[in-house]
């Protein structure tokens, strides 16, 4: 039924996220504790919390993901670069940036691509750059063209959504995955609340999931795995 | 029924806003044309569009409002300062910044106030600084304490909402207005769609309104004014 290789170590597919404006330091502590408990791949936090999360996770395998231009993608390019670089200075090993959605929907794809390339160039090679294209605001052609721009700009992932304007769909992930064609990975994010959501998006080609419901999702998977083993 | 002084030149109460991620250059042209037609106080745009709007409005009385830390308020303080300063460099005469909501809801009001004061200090004296406290995420006590922090930090306006997480209410404006007690002004923003909304918020003490429906609102007011004059 499922491709076992996708599900191997499901926990490591998750960027465990707390990205609301009202997120507090106590929330960041809880987020990082949950990430350690479940050995998630990373925590995703707003820039004001990156250094705090890095400090809390320093003795773990959990990475910290910083964001840039989040969630609108409509700040100046120099400000996006500064946010991305400062995130890395604070200890983030991955940056999830938001592309300029206004440029994408109006066909100014060269500007969008050039901006991504500038941010890629400003970051150390080992830092993973993911680019959010807010797929829910794009038609299928725009999703394809934007994914190509992300590839040409040298980023490592195309990511569906910020989560603030609707969630990832299987159709979006399929489009992004087919366009990526193995050159970059696909991260699905936004509205992922259940194990069923997660498995559907992974089957469609996502290799990373962003969610704030990650602990409940992987607990459910553990329950099912345990019950399968018992029945063998 | 209405305080005439509040309604005098209603158009000049409006910051006409286009703040979505998918806003295009064509949208900014339309926004600025509408602002000129209706002689709004300002247009409110994301940082990538500030210079464009300033250029389009250079021969008009319409100001351009820049934003900082919009809409989450959860970027680093140095990034907020840079965004605000760059907005002014691009020609904005007012900056609407988002306070750190996580600090406010967790009672770290000194940090929130100190951040606002740093941004105020980084801006030229003649630039108006408005501080968004995202009142819909705060209880009444937090709205009061946050407004006091805005006053102490030296800003000119406290502003209810970004518009991304629910709209301004009469209760919020009343609370902010009573706390401000004439020391700063109150801007209501978020979900203001009708003349009725606008008048209720102005009556509650707001002196500025942020809306993307500003043209329809002031056209309605003009219709009513014209019909009153006809009936005299």
Average pLDDT across residues of chain A? 96
Largest sheet of chain A: 8 strands, parallel, barrel
**CATH fold label of chain A:** TIM Barrel
Determine Rg of chain A (CA atoms, Å): 17 Å
* Physical arrangement of strands within the biggest beta sheet of chain A: 1-2-3-4-5-6-7-8
- What percentage of amino acids of chain A are in beta strands? 15-25%
Kindly describe this structure.
Two copies of one chain form a homodimer. Chain A is α/β, with parallel strands linked by helices and 232 residues long. Chain A has ten helices and eight strands. The first copy, chain A, has helices at residues 4-7, 25-38, 50-56, 77-89, 101-105, 109-122, 140-152, 170-180, 195-203, 214-230; strands at 14-18, 42-45, 63-68, 94-98, 128-132, 157-159, 185-189, 208-211. In chain A, strands 1-2-3-4-5-6-7-8 form an eight-stranded parallel barrel, surrounded by six helices. In chain A, helix 8 links the parallel strand 6 and strand 7 (185-189). The longest helix of chain A has 17 residues, at 214-230. Chains A and B meet through helix 2, helix 4 and helix 5 of A and helix 2, helix 4 and helix 5 of B.
